[in-house]
Amino acid sequence: MLRSLKLVLACLCLTSSVHAQSPDELVHQGKAMIESALKQAASTELLNARAHFERMLSAKQHEDLAHYYLAYCDYRYVTAFAARENSSDDQTAKYLDDAISHLEAAVKANDKFAEAHALLASCYGQKIGRNPMLGMILGPKSGAAFSAALRLAPENPRIIMLEAISKFFTPSMFGGDKDLALAGFKRSAEIFDKQTKTSTIQPDWGHAEAYAWIGFAYLDQNKKAEAKTAFDRALVIDPEFGWVKHVLLPKAVAAN
Fold first, then answer.
1. Could you tell me the residue ranges of all domains in the chain?
2. CATH, domain range 174-256
3. Contact 113, 66 (CB under 8 A)
4. What residue ranges of the chain have pLDDT lower than 50?
5. Span 1-154 CATH architecture
6. Residues ≥6 apart with Cβ < 8 Å to 115
């Protein structure tokens, strides 16, 4: 009985905390938690950020953004932590399914939310990458979601980058093209370089990542000097970018 009472009181405290802050403040806080988790490569912190946005969603505050950032946490867990932590295929699939569910809810709540359309397309692609048999069903859905995103925001650098990632990993027989992907990464980086923030609650990630993907594509072409230049630029933008600092850049340097 006492344990149940403590649990109820804890939940009430969490809910009160959510209501005590403005919706924008809650988004800022959650975004900072995600950024900290990724910089420190701390999956526990990322899951804490996810729980933060779940509380926002339960309080019905910025519902489209809460769905988006919940999905973004799932997406980042899959891309940054799943392999490192030896997550099972079933567990990884669950995170992707959750991400897709939240992104579908985000675009249902706001069908003009270009960022959500793009991340949804990317998550469909992640599912296909893990089970190519799903390509017949999810391939058209991914293409339609990217088309919707680019129609709504043709100069959004994250959308351009996510579509380029898709082009890079899609087999050529199904429309993939590594040269077009590299061009997309470069275009994304150029737009990021010129962009100024217009909103502090909307997604703003990806600047350093665009340069990481440029370098990744150059490594694939065995162009080590060009890859290193891109990785150096990524680290100017984000000096603690672990994927570049500890994985990609050493490959370019060792190869030279």
1. 1-154, 174-256
2. 1.25.40.10
3. no
4. 1-3, 5-18
5. Alpha Horseshoe (1.25)
6. 68, 149, 153, 156, 158, 159, 202, 203
Sequence letter at residue 46: L
Enter the tokens of residue 218: 């150059």
- Tally Cβ neighbours within 10 Å of residue 139: 17
> What are the tokens at 230?
């891109």
Burial label for 197, CB within 10 Å (0-12, 13-18, 19+), is exposed
What token pair was written down for 23? 């919706």
Question: Could you check whether 1-154 and 174-256 share the same CATH topology?
Answer: yes
User: Residues, the chain, total?
Assistant: 256
Per-residue pLDDT of 141-197, as tens digits, reads 999 999 999 999 999 999 999 999 999 999 999 899 999 999 999 999 999 999 987
Radius of gyration of the chain, Cα coordinates, nearest whole angstrom: 19
Question: Residue 13: which H helix or E strand, with range?
Answer: helix 2-20
- For 139, list phi and psi in degrees, rounded to 5: -55, -50
Show contacts of 30-39: CB within 8 Å, 24+ apart. Answer: 30/56, 30/69, 31/69, 31/201, 34/69, 34/72, 34/73, 34/76, 35/205, 37/76, 38/76, 38/80, 39/240, 39/242
Which amino acid does the sequence have at 8? V
Is the pTM higher than 0.85? The answer reads yes
